[in-house]
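User: I'll paste a sequence; please echo it back and then give the predicted structure.

Assistant: Echoing your sequence first, then the prediction.
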Amino acid sequence: MASSMHFKMFNIRQNLLVLRNIITVFSLAFVLSLINFSNSANTALAVSSYLEKTDYTLTNQSNGDFENQKLEGSSFAGTLARGANFSGAQLQGAIFTQGSFAGANFEGANLSDALMDRADFSGSNLKNSILTNAIASGSSFANAEIEGADFSDALLDREDLKNLCRRASGSNPTSGITTRNSLNCP
């Protein structure tokens, strides 16, 4: 009896696992059918939302040029954008979740209210950028240039905050806030 019960429980668990995998595959297939992926690194995935914002989710934008563009609310989630130029771009409320922006140039960009969690900004240029109210938990800012960046009320991991405070210098030309004060450095 016990062995029969164990077999039934195993069978139910196995069936649930198979069902979950089938649902995952069909969900992914549905999402992929809605999005036309391109293999070209220079072609942006342009999916217009009801807010008419461009969606660069899961695309390769490495070395792309977004200088001075108005990209408020746009999504760069999961995007590979190493070495891309976002200098002077308006990126308020943009989504950068799990993207790779190593070596990208965000000098003078407005990233206020951006969702930047679990993203790689190592070696990026954030000089004179505005990151007020940004959520950047789990992100890496290793060796990022942060002179004059305004991180006021941004959500950062304790270790990132500690490392950023070691390099903090300058004042933001737009807000007038020093980088050290915006990070609440001791």
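Confidence is low (pLDDT under 50) at residues 3-10, 25-51. The two ends are 67 Å apart (CA to CA).
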